[in-house]
Amino acid sequence: MAKEIKTIGVLTSGGDAPGMNAAIRAVVRKALANGVKVKGIKKGYQGLLNEEIVDMEKRDVSDIIQRGGTILGTARCSEFRTEEGQQKGADICRKHGIDGIVVIGGDGSYRGAQALSKHGINTIGLPGTIDLDISCTDYTIGFDTAINTAMDAIDRVRDTSSSHERCSIIEVMGRNAGYIALWCGVANGAEDILLPEKYDYNEQEIINNIINNRKRGKKHHIIINAEGIGHSTSMARRIEAATGVETRATILGYMQRGGNPTCKDRFYASIMGAYAADILCEGKTNRVVAYHGGEFVDFDIDEALAMEKQIPEYQYAVSRALSL
Ligand code: ADP
Ligand code: F6P
Fold first, then answer.
1. What pairs with residue 224 in β-bridges?
2. Is the pLDDT at 84 greater than 70, yes or no?
3. Which atom from ligand 2 is nearest to the alpha carbon of 256?
């Protein structure tokens, strides 16, 4: 029989993402509405090991739904990757009367949640990452805000690129995943898109594209380069030397991780946060909440982590076809 849940914890872990605050708010308020107490754990697993744990009431999450970042803070914690660290984390939960935890983060954070669950603390994961790189879910909290921030910035770079008839390489986030680059590539009408999943990009082909586009009268040439490929500045130098077209690199960086979440991020974070609180209060453990096939669902963490996700080939092919 599922153990009775009296108190739950909530933490954010790994890279922050806009919408995490909306998720925290939803977890806190839904759990309280279910008659369960809530504790906020600061700075991810590091804060758990340091016992940075505070009681959370309804008013503690007032006025945060619209804010980027995470009011709980986040961190990366190498100690939690060890068996000793995980055992210590579970013991600290028991000491503070925490029966279960909602972990908001990416798939690394899910592995921490999986470990805590094996040590007897109920856990539910929520997909919080701007990268959209969690296999079991079609949506991750923060992606929508990040792509809109990047899209807006790329539009601005495009204006000045056209005025100066330059080529622009714009580097977007995504160390291991090219979804931000793919979406912005399509939405910004980029001439070339470089994704970590397709590392075999051909620089000579890009150079030929630039030269051919110039002949066709295109005034700019936008290359969206994912962080995982990187090296935008040296790439710009090589391209300029080979084409004779002035080429500039712009690295968007951490601006993509901040800012007020979009309506979509607030909505999904709110529904997913409430869903996580509900299933945790029901006594479920080792689950992750996902948006899959048009519905909010939950999966076993072990199964979720074993799933694979690829860049959709058709979407990539369309991005190429429309950039003519
Ligand atoms: P994300 O959750 O965004 O993927 P990370 O991969 O950096 O970010 O993971 C966040 C944190 O989750 C790590 O700093 C670590 O504390 C914990 N974590 C990651 N992988 C594991 C693992 N295999 N076992 C236990 N904890 C892990
Ligand atoms: O949040 C996702 C992400 O932006 C990845 O694309 C990138 O690999 C990582 O975070 C970098 O984060 P940090 O510099 O904080 O380690």
1. 170, 193
2. yes
3. 4
